[in-house]
């Protein structure tokens, strides 16, 4: 029904997904690591941020395309 995609777009989209995934893993990992190692950051509002980081990790695991 649709013409095949240009192979260049496959490469560009794969590269973009890889870069965004790497940035997401590093950023969420830093949030979780800093929260668990710094006792003064354990406040209810920061707990919300850590819960968002953990849920983002779970969404990445469930929704990331198979490589």
From TrEMBL:
GO cellular component: a single term: plasma membrane
Domain G-protein coupled receptors family 1 profile: 27-67
GO molecular function, one term: G protein-coupled serotonin receptor activity
Bilayer-spanning residue ranges: 12-35, 47-66
Subcellular location: Cell membrane
Keywords linked to the UniProt accession: Cell membrane, Disulfide bond, G-protein coupled receptor, Membrane, Receptor, Transducer, Transmembrane, Transmembrane helix
A Pfam family of this chain: 7tm_1
Membrane topology (UniProt): Multi-pass membrane protein
Gene3D superfamilies (alphabetical): Rhodopsin 7-helix transmembrane proteins
Alphabetical GO biological process terms: adenylate cyclase-activating adrenergic receptor signaling pathway; positive regulation of MAPK cascade
Record family assignment: Belongs to the G-protein coupled receptor 1 family.
Protein name: Long wavelength rhodopsin
Provenance organism: Acromyrmex subterraneus subterraneus
